[in-house]
Protein backbone atom coordinates (compact mmCIF):
# COMPACT_ATOMS: atom_id res chain seq x y z
CA UNK A 1 0.00 0.00 0.00
CA UNK A 2 2.82 2.39 0.92
CA UNK A 3 4.46 1.66 -2.44
CA UNK A 4 1.20 2.50 -4.27
CA UNK A 5 0.88 5.75 -2.34
CA UNK A 6 4.49 6.62 -3.13
CA UNK A 7 3.95 5.98 -6.84
CA UNK A 8 0.79 8.09 -6.76
CA UNK A 9 2.66 10.94 -5.10
CA UNK A 10 5.46 10.69 -7.65
CA UNK A 11 2.95 10.73 -10.52
CA UNK A 12 1.18 13.76 -9.04
CA UNK A 13 4.51 15.53 -8.66
CA UNK A 14 5.38 14.83 -12.31
CA UNK A 15 2.03 16.22 -13.47
CA UNK A 16 2.49 19.35 -11.39
CA UNK A 17 5.99 19.79 -12.75
CA UNK A 18 4.75 19.48 -16.33
CA UNK A 19 1.96 22.01 -15.70
CA UNK A 20 4.44 24.39 -14.10
CA UNK A 21 6.82 23.99 -17.04
CA UNK A 22 4.00 24.66 -19.48
CA UNK A 23 2.97 27.78 -17.60
CA UNK A 24 6.59 28.87 -17.49
CA UNK A 25 6.93 28.35 -21.26
CA UNK A 26 3.77 30.37 -21.91
CA UNK A 27 5.01 33.10 -19.61
CA UNK A 28 8.35 33.13 -21.41
CA UNK A 29 6.62 33.29 -24.80
CA UNK A 30 4.57 36.28 -23.66
CA UNK A 31 7.69 38.03 -22.37
CA UNK A 32 9.49 37.43 -25.66
CA UNK A 33 6.77 39.12 -27.71
CA UNK A 34 8.36 42.18 -29.31
CA UNK A 35 6.58 45.55 -29.26
CA UNK A 36 6.08 45.26 -33.03
CA UNK A 37 4.25 41.94 -32.59
CA UNK A 38 2.03 43.06 -29.72
CA UNK A 39 -1.53 43.67 -30.92
CA UNK A 40 -3.04 44.09 -27.46
CA UNK A 41 -3.84 47.76 -28.11
CA UNK A 42 -5.71 46.96 -31.34
CA UNK A 43 -9.24 45.92 -32.25
CA UNK A 44 -11.16 44.62 -35.24
CA UNK A 45 -12.83 47.79 -36.52
CA UNK A 46 -16.31 46.34 -37.08
CA UNK A 47 -16.43 45.28 -33.41
CA UNK A 48 -16.38 48.99 -32.52
CA UNK A 49 -17.95 50.56 -35.62
CA UNK A 50 -20.43 48.00 -37.00
CA UNK A 51 -21.89 50.48 -39.51
CA UNK A 52 -18.81 50.67 -41.74
CA UNK A 53 -18.68 49.06 -45.17
CA UNK A 54 -15.50 47.11 -45.93
CA UNK A 55 -13.74 46.94 -49.28
CA UNK A 56 -10.25 45.88 -48.24
CA UNK A 57 -8.41 46.49 -51.48
CA UNK A 58 -5.13 44.81 -50.54
CA UNK A 59 -6.94 41.56 -49.73
CA UNK A 60 -8.28 41.62 -53.30
CA UNK A 61 -6.55 41.95 -56.66
CA UNK A 62 -8.08 45.36 -57.42
CA UNK A 63 -5.22 47.54 -56.21
CA UNK A 64 -2.24 49.30 -57.75
CA UNK A 65 -0.22 46.06 -57.84
CA UNK A 66 -2.97 43.73 -59.06
CA UNK A 67 -2.39 40.95 -56.51
CA UNK A 68 -3.38 40.16 -52.95
CA UNK A 69 -0.77 41.69 -50.65
CA UNK A 70 1.18 39.60 -48.10
CA UNK A 71 0.01 40.13 -44.53
CA UNK A 72 -3.65 40.51 -45.50
CA UNK A 73 -4.90 37.14 -44.29
CA UNK A 74 -8.55 38.14 -43.85
CA UNK A 75 -10.70 40.89 -45.47
CA UNK A 76 -11.06 42.83 -42.22
CA UNK A 77 -9.90 46.21 -40.92
CA UNK A 78 -7.82 46.47 -37.75
CA UNK A 79 -7.05 49.72 -35.91
CA UNK A 80 -5.71 50.80 -32.55
CA UNK A 81 -8.55 50.97 -30.07
CA UNK A 82 -8.03 54.73 -29.72
CA UNK A 83 -8.44 55.28 -33.48
CA UNK A 84 -11.44 52.95 -33.66
CA UNK A 85 -13.20 54.79 -30.81
CA UNK A 86 -12.67 58.11 -32.60
CA UNK A 87 -13.87 56.67 -35.89
CA UNK A 88 -17.08 55.56 -34.15
CA UNK A 89 -17.80 59.25 -33.48
CA UNK A 90 -17.09 60.08 -37.13
CA UNK A 91 -19.46 57.32 -38.25
CA UNK A 92 -22.25 58.49 -35.95
CA UNK A 93 -21.79 62.05 -37.20
CA UNK A 94 -21.95 61.10 -40.88
CA UNK A 95 -24.86 58.68 -40.45
CA UNK A 96 -26.79 61.72 -39.25
CA UNK A 97 -25.94 63.37 -42.58
CA UNK A 98 -27.06 60.36 -44.64
CA UNK A 99 -23.67 58.68 -45.19
CA UNK A 100 -21.82 55.58 -44.11
CA UNK A 101 -18.06 55.11 -44.07
CA UNK A 102 -16.49 52.76 -46.58
CA UNK A 103 -13.08 51.43 -45.55
CA UNK A 104 -10.32 50.58 -48.03
CA UNK A 105 -7.42 50.03 -45.64
CA UNK A 106 -6.51 50.50 -41.99
CA UNK A 107 -3.60 48.90 -40.12
CA UNK A 108 -1.02 47.62 -42.62
CA UNK A 109 1.71 45.18 -41.52
CA UNK A 110 5.32 46.00 -42.35
CA UNK A 111 5.44 42.89 -44.54
CA UNK A 112 2.97 44.57 -46.90
CA UNK A 113 4.99 47.80 -47.01
CA UNK A 114 8.11 45.81 -47.84
CA UNK A 115 6.19 44.11 -50.65
CA UNK A 116 5.17 47.51 -52.05
CA UNK A 117 8.82 48.57 -52.11
CA UNK A 118 9.91 45.38 -53.88
CA UNK A 119 7.16 45.90 -56.47
CA UNK A 120 8.21 49.51 -57.03
CA UNK A 121 11.75 48.40 -57.89
CA UNK A 122 10.50 46.00 -60.57
CA UNK A 123 10.00 48.44 -63.44
CA UNK A 124 8.60 45.75 -65.71
CA UNK A 125 5.60 45.05 -63.48
CA UNK A 126 3.08 47.63 -64.71
CA UNK A 127 -0.10 45.54 -64.78
CA UNK A 128 -2.29 48.18 -63.12
CA UNK A 129 -0.70 51.32 -64.58
CA UNK A 130 -3.76 52.23 -66.75
CA UNK A 131 -5.95 52.34 -63.65
CA UNK A 132 -3.80 53.79 -60.88
CA UNK A 133 -0.83 55.68 -62.34
CA UNK A 134 -1.43 56.42 -66.05
CA UNK A 135 0.30 59.81 -65.79
CA UNK A 136 3.49 58.51 -64.18
CA UNK A 137 6.45 56.40 -65.20
CA UNK A 138 7.00 53.75 -62.58
CA UNK A 139 10.53 54.83 -61.74
CA UNK A 140 9.25 58.06 -60.14
CA UNK A 141 6.84 56.33 -57.75
CA UNK A 142 9.40 55.98 -54.92
CA UNK A 143 11.17 59.35 -55.41
CA UNK A 144 7.80 61.09 -55.38
CA UNK A 145 6.86 59.10 -52.25
CA UNK A 146 3.77 57.35 -53.54
CA UNK A 147 5.43 54.25 -52.05
CA UNK A 148 7.87 54.44 -49.11
CA UNK A 149 9.78 52.16 -46.75
CA UNK A 150 7.65 53.26 -43.79
CA UNK A 151 3.93 53.94 -43.63
CA UNK A 152 1.72 55.58 -41.03
CA UNK A 153 -0.68 52.70 -41.58
CA UNK A 154 1.83 50.37 -39.94
CA UNK A 155 1.58 52.34 -36.68
CA UNK A 156 -2.07 51.33 -36.56
CA UNK A 157 -3.93 54.65 -36.34
CA UNK A 158 -4.18 55.58 -40.02
CA UNK A 159 -7.16 54.75 -42.18
CA UNK A 160 -8.10 55.05 -45.88
CA UNK A 161 -11.80 55.57 -46.48
CA UNK A 162 -14.57 57.29 -48.40
CA UNK A 163 -18.28 58.08 -48.10
CA UNK A 164 -21.21 55.89 -49.10
CA UNK A 165 -24.48 57.73 -49.81
CA UNK A 166 -27.33 55.86 -48.14
CA UNK A 167 -29.93 57.59 -50.33
CA UNK A 168 -28.41 56.67 -53.69
CA UNK A 169 -26.84 53.46 -52.31
CA UNK A 170 -23.62 54.33 -54.11
CA UNK A 171 -20.10 55.34 -53.22
CA UNK A 172 -19.78 59.13 -53.28
CA UNK A 173 -17.91 60.64 -56.26
CA UNK A 174 -14.58 62.01 -55.04
CA UNK A 175 -13.18 62.83 -58.46
CA UNK A 176 -10.64 60.02 -58.73
CA UNK A 177 -10.23 56.47 -57.54
CA UNK A 178 -8.71 55.45 -54.23
CA UNK A 179 -4.93 54.98 -54.52
CA UNK A 180 -4.63 57.07 -57.68
CA UNK A 181 -1.03 58.26 -58.02
CA UNK A 182 -1.25 61.85 -59.22
CA UNK A 183 -2.31 65.41 -58.45
CA UNK A 184 -5.99 64.49 -58.76
CA UNK A 185 -5.68 62.73 -55.38
CA UNK A 186 -4.67 65.88 -53.51
CA UNK A 187 -7.65 66.92 -51.34
CA UNK A 188 -7.01 70.65 -51.78
CA UNK A 189 -7.19 70.57 -55.60
CA UNK A 190 -9.70 73.24 -56.54
CA UNK A 191 -12.63 72.76 -58.94
CA UNK A 192 -11.47 73.30 -62.52
CA UNK A 193 -7.78 73.42 -61.59
CA UNK A 194 -5.38 72.02 -64.21
CA UNK A 195 -4.01 68.73 -62.87
CA UNK A 196 -2.13 67.16 -65.75
CA UNK A 197 -3.77 64.60 -67.98
CA UNK A 198 -6.46 63.73 -65.43
CA UNK A 199 -9.83 65.46 -65.76
CA UNK A 200 -10.31 68.44 -63.42
CA UNK A 201 -12.21 68.05 -60.17
CA UNK A 202 -15.67 69.61 -60.22
CA UNK A 203 -17.46 71.45 -57.41
CA UNK A 204 -19.55 68.48 -56.31
CA UNK A 205 -16.49 66.22 -56.06
CA UNK A 206 -14.58 68.85 -54.10
CA UNK A 207 -17.49 69.36 -51.70
CA UNK A 208 -17.72 65.61 -51.14
CA UNK A 209 -14.06 65.55 -50.16
CA UNK A 210 -14.65 68.38 -47.72
CA UNK A 211 -17.62 66.61 -46.08
CA UNK A 212 -15.36 63.67 -45.30
CA UNK A 213 -12.45 65.83 -44.23
CA UNK A 214 -14.56 68.02 -41.94
CA UNK A 215 -16.08 65.03 -40.14
CA UNK A 216 -12.70 63.32 -39.70
CA UNK A 217 -11.00 66.46 -38.37
CA UNK A 218 -13.89 67.17 -35.99
CA UNK A 219 -13.17 63.90 -34.22
CA UNK A 220 -9.41 63.97 -33.90
CA UNK A 221 -8.04 62.87 -37.27
CA UNK A 222 -5.62 64.87 -39.40
CA UNK A 223 -5.69 64.74 -43.22
CA UNK A 224 -2.80 63.99 -45.55
CA UNK A 225 -2.15 66.66 -48.18
CA UNK A 226 -1.58 64.20 -51.06
CA UNK A 227 -4.50 61.76 -50.61
CA UNK A 228 -8.13 62.74 -50.02
CA UNK A 229 -8.86 59.32 -48.47
CA UNK A 230 -5.99 59.17 -45.93
CA UNK A 231 -6.35 60.24 -42.28
CA UNK A 232 -4.29 59.66 -39.13
CA UNK A 233 -5.40 60.03 -35.52
CA UNK A 234 -3.63 63.19 -34.35
CA UNK A 235 -2.96 61.73 -30.90
CA UNK A 236 -1.91 58.29 -32.12
CA UNK A 237 -0.88 55.91 -29.31
CA UNK A 238 2.12 54.33 -31.10
CA UNK A 239 3.85 57.13 -33.02
CA UNK A 240 7.20 55.31 -33.22
CA UNK A 241 6.20 51.63 -33.55
CA UNK A 242 5.80 49.87 -36.89
CA UNK A 243 3.85 46.68 -36.28
CA UNK A 244 4.36 43.32 -37.95
CA UNK A 245 1.44 41.07 -36.96
CA UNK A 246 -0.81 39.89 -39.84
CA UNK A 247 -4.32 41.14 -40.51
CA UNK A 248 -6.42 38.38 -38.98
CA UNK A 249 -8.80 38.09 -36.03
CA UNK A 250 -6.39 35.65 -34.43
CA UNK A 251 -3.81 38.46 -34.16
CA UNK A 252 -5.96 40.33 -31.63
CA UNK A 253 -5.70 38.95 -28.07
CA UNK A 254 -8.96 37.95 -26.41
CA UNK A 255 -10.13 40.37 -23.75
Question: What's a concise summary of this model?
Answer:
With 255 residues, the protein is α+β, with helices and mostly antiparallel strands.
Shape: globular
User: How would you classify the helix and strand content by structural class?
Assistant: alpha+beta
- What composes the largest sheet? 6 strands, mixed
What is the chain-wise order of helices and strands? HEHEEHEHHEEHEE
The beta-strand count equals 8
Overall pLDDT: 91
Supply Rg.
Answer: 23 Å
Beta percentage is 5-15%
Q: Classify the helix fraction into a percent range.
A: 25-40%
> How many helices?
6
Give the distance, in angstroms, between the N- and C-terminal Cα atoms: 48 Å
Low-confidence stretches: 7-29
Description:
This protein has helices at residues 2-32, 45-48, 81-95, 110-121, 129-132, 203-218; strands at 42-44, 53-54, 78-80, 99-105, 158-165, 170-171, 221-224, 227-233. With 255 residues, it is of the alpha+beta class. The strands form two sheets. Strands 2, 4, 5, 6, 7 and 8 form a six-stranded mixed β-sheet that branches. Strands 1-3 form a two-stranded antiparallel sheet. The longest helix has 31 residues, at 2-32. The N and C termini lie far apart (48 Å). Residues 7-29 have low confidence and may be disordered.
